[in-house]
Design goal:
This protein is an alpha/beta fold. The chain has helices at 13-26, 38-50, 112-123; strands at 2-7, 31-34, 60-61, 72-75, 86-89, 102-107, 129-136, 139-142. It has a single domain (2-142), classed as Rossmann fold (3-Layer(aba) Sandwich).
């Protein structure tokens, strides 16, 4: 499993998730977006319709009758009923995401200590590839 740590120093998760979603769908994958904050999920839902001008990012909220058909599913638990192999943890809280090929952990600067703990914990697991991304102006750069 690959885990990408995104430290959000400029843009909120609501702006970053649509970009990750577009890339995920472009790779032929489905995405599960997880947050305990219902308001944040609502803002992400709105951003999926409005943020990326050249893309139609169809999605749904978990708990609906058509969850399995959703290319992007938003919910509060990492249960990929839509068959997603990619998961975005939008609220910065690590959750075990069994069966995922790739996990995006988006965290604000005030959650850096928890992100560091997660980085160390995942570093002890076999088969986990970790990457760290930071915002540099308007671009994302990989690095320390």
């Amino acid at each position: 499993m690959r885990v990408d740590f995104y430290q959000l120093t400029r843009d909120p998760a609501e702006w970053v998730v649509p970009l990750l979603a577009r890339s995920t769908l472009g790779a032929g994958e489905r995405l599960l977006v997880v947050s305990d904050d219902a308001d944040q999920l609502g803002r992400i839902s709105a951003a999926l319709w409005q943020r990326v001008a050249d893309s139609f990012l169809a999605h749904g909220m978990a708990g609906g009758p058509h969850d399995a058909r959703q290319p992007i599913l938003l919910g509060s638990v990492p249960d990929p009923v839509n068959g997603a192999r990619y998961c975005a943890l939008a609220d910065g809280q690590w959750r075990e995401a069994d069966g995922m090929n790739r996990v995006f952990l988006l965290f604000a600067p005030e959650h850096i200590d928890a992100a560091r703990q997660t980085w160390r914990m995942l570093g002890q697991r076999e088969g986990v590839e970790r990457h760290y991304w930071r915002q540099d102006g308007g671009k994302w750069k990989e690095g320390p």
